[in-house]
Amino acid sequence: MSAFWLSQMLAGFSFIFDLLAFQFARRRITLAILAVSTSLLAIHFCLLNAPVAASLMALAACRYLTAIMTTARKMKNGFIVATCLCSALSWQQPTDVLPLLGSLLMTSAAFHPAAKSMRRLTLCGSGCWLVNNMVIGSPVAVVMESAFILSTLVSYWRLTRQAG
């Protein structure tokens, strides 16, 4: 099996976890599922020779696991710095700004204690990752990110409906 097809398989498994992630009301469960998903995506991007995206997804898995235990501003700021350093150390081309922006937005989302705000930030970050996936040519990741955006929108709508 080629590296491309293996990467697409891993993105497919990640896709399943992404569809489930925001369907749980409990923030900790959502973050744990996202940690699994981003771990799979780190390997996916590595196989596609996208080092910035791969390293930022590996860092994202750590970020989600940390955010399960704390929303401390200090931790969020530490992950923002780590995201910038990680991106700078593996930077290869101008389009590498997409995973950087996506990761910065997702970091803010992961440490945001309010469910609705977390989902709004996640939608913005997902938009950056969607364009990145188009640029690197990963069809399964494009479908996955699109579905993730839809799933996040549905969960946002459900939260808004419950509150209103």
UniProtKB/TrEMBL annotation:
<feature type="transmembrane region" description="Helical">
    <location>
        <begin position="31"/>
        <end position="62"/>
    </location>
</feature>
<keyword id="KW-0812">Transmembrane</keyword>
<dbReference type="Pfam" id="PF10688">
    <property type="entry name" value="Imp-YgjV"/>
</dbReference>
<protein>
    <recommendedName>
        <fullName>YgjV family protein</fullName>
    </recommendedName>
</protein>
<keyword id="KW-1133">Transmembrane helix</keyword>
<feature type="transmembrane region" description="Helical">
    <location>
        <begin position="135"/>
        <end position="157"/>
    </location>
</feature>
<dbReference type="InterPro" id="IPR019629">
    <property type="entry name" value="Uncharacterised_HI1736/YgjV"/>
</dbReference>
<keyword id="KW-0472">Membrane</keyword>
